[in-house]
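The instructor's notes for this session suggest beginning with a concrete chain rather than abstract definitions. Hand out the sequence below and ask the class to guess, before any prediction is shown, which regions might be ordered.
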Amino acid sequence: MSATADTRPSPRASLPARIRDLSVNQIAEIADLAREDPEVIKLWIGEGDLPTPPFVTEAAEAAMRAGQTRYTYSQGLPRLRQALADYHARHWGVAVAPDRFAVTAGGMNAIMQAIQAVIEPGEEVIIPGPHWPNLAAVVRVCGGVPVTVNLRRAADGAFSLNLADIEAAITPRTRMVAINSPSNPTGWVMPKGEMLALRDLLRARDLWLLSDEVYNHFTYGNSIAPSFLEITEPTDKLLVTNTFSKNWAMTGWRAGWIVVPEGMGETFASLCQYNTTSIPTFIQYACIAALDQGDDFIRTMVARCRESRRIFSEGLAALPGIRVQAPEGSFYLMFSQDGVTDSRALAIRLLREAKVGLAPGTAFSDEDDGKIRLCFAISPGLAEQAMARLAAFFRRG
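After discussion, reveal the predicted structure:
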């Protein structure tokens, strides 16, 4: 029997365009070039270098040994949702009912569920940029359309959001505005006055607000960043997403949460059920320990970041041709080199020649102005080593 050519389209070609056309995450693309290289100082991905604190891992181990390895409430253990309510009351002075919390498989899944709950195919989500690429990708996966409104930048490099730019981007198809403050990758922190103005605008236009508040503790003034929960009512169209990853060095545990409007707990219990059934029960006991015992650990994390931020901000600013602005919040900074417009090429050179792994600005924006993102959630000692390598690289030219 003679073989005949298979003329059928490839399986990939039959996928929906929103899935088929997903772009490669450029942060992961650069990281994959040297994940296993022990000589590289890895500052590309947003995680600290501290291990998960023992009181968290011990709580998980104790829960496993006690048999907490079976299915549980889709929305999260009642005790964990109460601990989340207590945490928000302690840090922001807000009373959030435990049934307004849903426990998710990390902050990524919290954002996925927020978009799943609200966005119909073809509807638009306005996102200030540069922004974390996963947010826009989730909108696309759910059939929505991400619309970037660029942050403005002052002569000194400071970022700001002009509310008129947001208002101008609203169309009949707009359904949601998504805010990440403190911001990844820019370190921008939204002032409370601007939060109030945005709240009023969205109320007037009957639009949803997604507030990703993952980095609220990572600010470098005298207080933590404000939460939209402080200035809204339980019935507002507000979804707040967060994660255990950053505050308590739990990136690999895949645990997060979402705060939903009053009366929507059952909706998100169903979304949790159909996304993940629930996150592992023993991990939820670890999360309770993080919330109840972890405030001192957060302070330690922020103090280390503050010093490493100083090392990089001052060290980069001292180099000729390097433009950098110390970020207000988060644990990232963006910098650029005069005359460089290809951030991906620069990131690859830094990886290969300086042995410092950084993320290209094109991971966060369609415009390539040569910016590079650096994660400084590391020990000051390691920051000094990385800064010395960067200084040697840029002085060589």
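Then share the key points. The chain has a mean pLDDT of 95. The chain has two domains: 24-52+296-396, 55-293.
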